[in-house]
């Protein structure tokens, strides 16, 4: 980890720590920025919103543009694989422009929702409804403490809290991008 931090130079380094790992990262200079609560279960009472549709490769430029705005970095090399990796990948369009996208992918025993990037909270929740209605099996999402709408959605749809993990940053500096657009990470390992 120390070698990685040396190579990072002045770049902002972030991670998500478990309770067990947090003391180690604090010794290295990381500080907590929030909390993420993992919710799991079989979503109940989900009604598809219907404003999203399945993404196509033709949507990729819009997805990449929106994601770069949200994250402040070019994640194209990662995001082009979403079409192969996700079980479902949906977009919301407005005026012929992608204004939200979200995916769901199958982990070892659960369907994990993420990433979810949206200009508006109502579009994020619509994507969540549509994704939850379209997949079968146990469901998992990581709700960031600055996204109370996701906590409300999880509780309202019967998911239960499984764990709390801690996003951390090496420097007390704002993360790049328009972070208000970011609703759910791809996974706790990859924001």
UniProtKB/TrEMBL annotation:
<dbReference type="InterPro" id="IPR052729">
    <property type="entry name" value="Acyl/Acetyltrans_Enzymes"/>
</dbReference>
<dbReference type="Pfam" id="PF18014">
    <property type="entry name" value="Acetyltransf_18"/>
</dbReference>
<dbReference type="InterPro" id="IPR016181">
    <property type="entry name" value="Acyl_CoA_acyltransferase"/>
</dbReference>
<feature type="domain" description="YitH/HolE acetyltransferase (GNAT)">
    <location>
        <begin position="63"/>
        <end position="178"/>
    </location>
</feature>
<dbReference type="InterPro" id="IPR041496">
    <property type="entry name" value="YitH/HolE_GNAT"/>
</dbReference>
<protein>
    <recommendedName>
        <fullName>YitH/HolE acetyltransferase (GNAT) domain-containing protein</fullName>
    </recommendedName>
</protein>
